[in-house]
Amino acid sequence: MNTANGIPFLGYGTYPLTGAECRDGVAMALDLGIRHIDTAQLYDNEKDVGQAVARSGLKRDEIFLVTKVARDNLDRRHFTHSVEESLDKLGVEQVDLLLIHWPPAEADFDQAIDALCAAQASGLARQIGVSNFTIALMKRAAKRASHKLVNNQVEFHPLLDQSQVKAEAEKLGMVLSAYSPLGRGAVLKDPVVLEVATRLKRPPSEIALRWIIQQGVVAVPMTTRRENARSNMRVLDFELSPADMARLSQASQQNRRLVSPLGWAPKWD
Questions:
Q1: Quick check: is 43 catalytic?
Q2: Which phi and psi (to 5°) does residue 263 adopt?
Q3: What domain range includes position 126?
Q4: Are residues 193 and 223 in contact, defined by beta-carbon separation less than 8 angstroms?
Q5: For range 126-146, the mean pLDDT
Q6: Which of the residue ranges 83-92, 190-199, 248-257 would you say has the lowest mean pLDDT?
Q7: What does the pLDDT read at residue 5?
Q8: What is the C-alpha separation between 257 and 117, in angstroms, rounded?
Q9: pLDDT tier at 4 (50, 70, 90 boundaries)?
Q10: Confidence of residue 164 (pLDDT cuts 50, 70, 90)
C-alpha cells in the first residue's frame, strides 16, 4: 500500500537505535514484510541500517530507503559530500528519498534547495523532499526547487493538529510523513484513543496509526519488539469509521507538540 509517489504508507523508523539494536530492528522489520526504512545522518546509524539491508537478502528495488541531510551539512561545501558519505554507509548507489532534515538557516536556504535538486539530478536520490518545514517554508522550497519535492516529514499524531500543513502539502503535490506517530507513547494514554481502541478491541497504537494512514499520511513508527511491529502492520487491514476519524481529529486540537529542538525548529504553524 503506497502513496501516489510510491512511498509505502507504513515504514520503520530507526531513531534512536544504533549498533546491534538498530541492525536487529531493521532486520526484524524487513523479515516481517515492512519495506520502507527511515534513517538520517543525525541518527548516526546509517551504517547499521546498511548492514541490515545487505544481510536481508532482499533486492535493492524491494526496499524504499530514506535518509536526511543534517542541518550542519546544508552549506555548499558539505551537502553533496555528506550525501555521498551517507550512500557509502548505507551501501547503496542512491536512496529512494532524500530529505533536508531541518529547515536551513536563512543564508543557506536557496543553496540547500538547489543542492537537494542537484542530488536528484545526479542520481544520488530517486526522489527528494524536506522535513520539519512549515507552510511558508514548504511554499518557498517548492517555488525554488527545479525538481519536484514529494514529501515533508513532520511530527504527526492524534495529539497535534497538522491539518493546515497537510492541506498545503497536498496543494503543492507533497505527501506528509509522520515521525513520532505515537507521540513518544503519550498517544497511547489519550482517553479518546483508548475509548476507540477498547470499543474496536485493538491496541491504541493501531488506532493512532490507522488514523494517520487513513488520511493519506505515511507513518514511520519505531519499535524493537516483534509483536509490536507485527501489530503495526495490521493497520493496513482495517478502516476507522468517519465518526471515529472525526473524534480523533478533534483530540488532535490539544496541539501537544513533543519535538522542537532549540535553535533548529522553525516558528511552527
A1: yes
A2: 95, -25
A3: 12-254
A4: no
A5: 98
A6: 248-257
A7: 87
A8: 30
A9: confident
A10: very high
For residue 21, how many C-alpha atoms fall within 13 Å in the half-sphere facing its CB? 11
Number of domains in the chain: 1
For residue 238 the three cell numbers come to: 482495517
**pLDDT above 90: residue 157:** yes
Nearest partner of 67 among 45, 56, 34, 209, judged by Cα: 45
> What's the Rg (C-alpha) of the chain?
18
In eight-state DSSP terms, residue 261 is -
pLDDT score at 1: 84
Selection from 206, 112, 131, 141 nearest residue 175 by Cα: 131
pTM: 0.97
CATH of the domain at 139: 3.20.20.100
* Rounded Cα gap, residues 43 and 143, in angstroms: 29
Adjacency order of strands within the sheet including 175-179: 12-13, 36-38, 64-69, 95-100, 125-131, 149-155, 175-179, 218-219
Residue 266 resides in a domain: no
Residue 4's CB: how many other CB atoms inside 10 A?
A: 9
Q: Which residues contact 57 (CB under 8 A, 6 or more apart)?
A: none
C-alpha cell at 108: 543557506
**Burial of 245: CB neighbours in 10 Å, binned 0-12, 13-18, 19+:** middle
What would the DSSP string read from start to end of 83-113?
HHHHHHHHT-S-EEEEEESSPPPGGGHHHHH
Name the active-site residue from 12, 15, 43, 179.
Answer: 43
Domain-located, residue 96: yes
Q: Which residues contact 109 (CB under 8 A, 6 or more apart)?
A: 103, 140, 144
| φ, ψ for residue 268, nearest 5 deg | -65, 150
